[in-house]
Amino acid sequence: MQAEPPAQGFRYIARKRRPKEDRRFVAGSGRYVADIALPGMVHVALVASPYPRARIIAIDAAAALALPGVKAVLTGDELARATDPLYSGLDIPQVRRYPLAVGMARYVGEWVAAVVAETRPVAEDAAELVQVEYEPLPHIGDPEAALAPDAPLVHPDHGSNVLYRRKFVWGPVEEDFAAAADRLSFRARWHRNSTVPVETFGVIANWNAATQLLEVWASIQMPKFPDQLARALRLPGNAVRVHFDVDVGGSYGVKRGIKHSVLVGFLSRQLGCPVRLIEDRLENMRGGDAHGPDRIFDVAIAFDKTGVIRSLRIRALDDVGAYAGRAPLQLGKPVGAIVGPYRIKSVEYEPISVTTNKTVQEAVRGFGQSPTNFAIETAMDLVARRLGMDRIELRRRNLLRHDEFPYTIPSGSTYDSGDYHTVLDKALAAADHGELLKRRDAARAAGKLAGIGVACCLEPSGGNSAFEPLFNPKNETTTWMESCQVKIDLNGAILAAMGTSSSGQGHETLTATVIGEILERDPDTIRVVHSDSLTALPSNSPVGSRMAIMLGGAAAGAARKLKATLVAIAAHNLGLPAEQLVYRDGSIAAATEPSRVLSWEQLVEIAHRKFHKLPPGTEPGLQAIHVWEVPTGGALPTPDGRVQMYPCYAFETHVVYAEIDRISGRVELKKYVVGHDCGVMINPDIVHGMTYGGIAHGIGAALYERFAYDANGQLVSGSFMDYLIPSSHEVPDIEIVDHCTPSPLTTFGQKGSGEAGYLGAPAAIASAVNDALAPLGLHTATLPMSMMQLGALLATKDDVTGETPVTEAER
Amino acid sequence: MKAVDFDYARPGSVGDACRLLAEAAGDGKIIAGGQTLVPLLAMRLARPALLVDVNRIPELQGIEESSDAVILRACTRQAVALADRAVRQRVPLLAKALGFVGHVQTRNRGTIGGSLANADPSAEIGVAALALGAEIEARSAAGDRRIAIADFFIGPMMTALEAAECLTSVRFPVWPGPGRIGTGFQEVSARRSDFAVAAVAVQLQLDGDGVCRRIALGIGGAGARPLSVEAAAARLRGSRLAAPDLAAAARIVRDAVEPDSDLHASADYRRRLAGALVERAVAEAAADALAGGA
Amino acid sequence: MSLHEITVTVNGREHRAQVPARLTLVDFLRDTLRLTGTHAGCEHGVCGACSILLDGRPMRSCLIFAVQAEGSAITTVEGLAPGPEGLSILQDSFWEMHALQCGFCTPGMLIAAHALLQETLSPSEEQIREAIGGNLCRCTGYKQIVDAVELAAERLRGANRPESEDGHAG
Question: Taking Cα atoms as reference points, which of A111, A134, A99, A130 lies closest to residue A287?
Fold first, then answer.
């Protein structure tokens, strides 16, 4: 499909527009959960386990309760009697998870008791006074050791540490490996890190006994949050009202806070007042259960002498921590792009989800695609190295061509559209690859370690639930919808309602722009509000890079219905069929007689006030809802696990130039270009912003961030002093060069883009680092490529005396 | 992360501060800039019963000059010292080191005295102070005393200061001419402005023939306290600071230091870094001297 | 618990309060004065979301106790705009360049950038990155923030009137 310059076809879409959300944030007028103060509100602090695995013998709260200002101390036993276990996406009934540990603490930092007091400082004082008697037990910290039959069991009732394991074989993998000219295998390690937003998770719950309604304000980004909360609290769904108009200070997947919310929901009902829990940073890092993928990839790849890839085997062992969380399903999403952007005809994928005594994982930006892309791109670079072939040329040979779309990969997912070669060319041109090679070679001649990295990665977008039935056949969920309601009021102002929260993605702007496009009204005049869970239409939250597609489509659908109503009103009142009318800027005129016109105001008047002028059968007023299922969704997986994972596939090519300090191993990113194709961008500034941010995230994962555990199961990087988030010094200037291959499946040709940048940056940076190390014959496939890791690797190449060469540049 | 409750006093004189500390009998802590203390309080790792706020004590404010030294009173903000003309012109190594300390926000509040009293083994101000042969002035109920910097740092986060003693000023000697003076400061940290994994401060003086007549080193992050490794300085003194001289000095440094391992850096790594940074810092200082230096 | 009486000026308005010694300045601003624009992201002095101006200089309010701020003049993000309806040139530039997404780090960024522009109206990219080097952002990758500060500087340089102290948009 030819890419067209998108802005030419649109009036508001794809054009620069100030995001409406920004106005309140630059004024310091955002409303985050910690900004909300309710009369009589009390505060929670947690008592956390100091052991990675221990039996809880007794909890003595007497001293804590005696402290003035303390209202209550809640234990896991009491909470488990009154609530149902938290939902898990797998069929693992013996792995029960509650907000507070029950009988056994399973990781350092697990919440064992909750203290409620008039102020947070007093709650913390009291938490120190709660005496817990533990019986420490041997713990399991290594995911491979967790597979051994004699390993300590995190959940003895479950019988093993494996939560999920399956080997998918799509196509003749064994034959293709045997027939290929060559093959290689390697291990890649993606150490545990996460998105770690600057705002921690927080929630306020207020049970109103008079109305029998639980009000909830939370920093939330989670599908089915109100439903799961209600279920766990044994309340009907319509007894819980979650306010989605709370501003969320970043999430990128992890703010699911279901255990926090069940905890405060229960406490509020018990105490009869509003209860607030705002994680402090230590609670967040250790006990917030928001860690990310922690994977060991064992990869084998088969190829011809010409570099054509024949087959691929990936075994992904993921250490999910002490409970299921969302992590196991995070092994499933990559099925939808398991061969990356390449023409690989057979593939074997073996995901293994294993528990250890560590903090629990949550869904992280990309839902497992970024680590998988890292594994795939590492494979490609190693193949190129083996063949002595240029890495870019190898990719060209294997990238799907633009005339091959739609293309179905062996795992059953169809890629909707793309023009990978053009994006690659654009990125290389923008990076001035030829000059970059000269720059690299000149640096090397001066004794430096310098490398260029290239990564071609997919961003599956649109989200659907296909990994749920894939990983748990008992869960036949195939609905993954989004909704929007649009109204035009008596004064002609447009209002839209979305049924979920936002955490910086610009949904209000997105929605207003789409509606404005269709109704030809200025998006700045369109207000978008967030419904609460009682008034909201069905939604699945902003996950899986889905909102541009799904909320955009829902808003467009509702707007179209309103437009049709307006046209019908005009047709009826002008006495002309719709085909003879022209709609312009909200007014409708006879095509042949422009003076016969009904203005926006007149149409609105008729709809709201002049029933006698409405076409028969028309509902009064101007309101429309649109609820729709994700395109290509709605089907269960095949018995061999083939499934259409997500509808749309955005594509990115990163070109990175890096230099590495020979002694310290410190990586400096000196040039960063990304070619990005996410179809039509509804708001370019918003899309670019998320791409820059995604790359910054990827830089963190590639070079700096790690949740590290010691031999005693203690998290040793549990504060911002040791968990290193990139600052403005670590993120270079980034150039984005856009391309547009519209999706045939969406309203405007848009694809999702919330995960852009993050999905390819770690792979690209690893590619650059390894290119820099290649002249020394060194290679690393372990992230993060910290200073110390590379320093130690480089030290293996020092000569016997340990003398360090001083280069000309350093003299 | 709310601190354990404490009593708070804001005395108007150093004498009062010392008296309060003495009365607290070891359970009192001075708060100056608070950039290192308050995080410890927030994490409940520090739990003093009394916080003695010295920020407004007049005797602890200001920068003075004498003919052969620049004296910074203890509560001089790092940002103020960094911008001070006397510091920049007469103690350029300190100004250079300050550029590596924390961020804009932390330098506006953190103090010279506070950083030295905190005694992080890789802290830039301490490393520069050691290289410069600074002198600490302190007061207690027993009176005033001077502590040579070489005797000041005892171990990680441990100094020669007594429990009820207050650091009042730091005296930085100024190197006299003739001869071209150059400074070098090199550090390695995971991210820019993180605490240094290793840091080296160098000040040297070349004669008219380019021979190094005077040199002082300070090495941080490679042991329990900053080190000067006189043997390495001796090796470089009288040389032209050519590549073999630097390499030899690096070797001496690597053999002399005894670093620890932790999450961010192994002992071997710190050892290698110490040697390499000495070479780089000396090279930087030599180039600085040749270019005109201070 | 020791209580102390303090008088502080915040955004030009004097406040008198009784505060516990251990109450941090960020908690005082947010919970006592209900100026919730300043945010607490880490409470141990790394993320910078709590940045305010104290006597004109940017500092981390999570590392200062309210009692220590006695007699000081503090500016928070709420004090940057010229009035309830307007935005400063810097704030408006942030909006124009979409220098934010979730908005949580934004008040701290604005304070840091504001302080920079008080010192120079021609900051280099390096100077801008240094000025915001102590403010972590997880959303933007910093690029659009740098662009916004450059735009604000350009607009302030070109403003055809004597520069007001805080560079308010006209």
Answer: A111
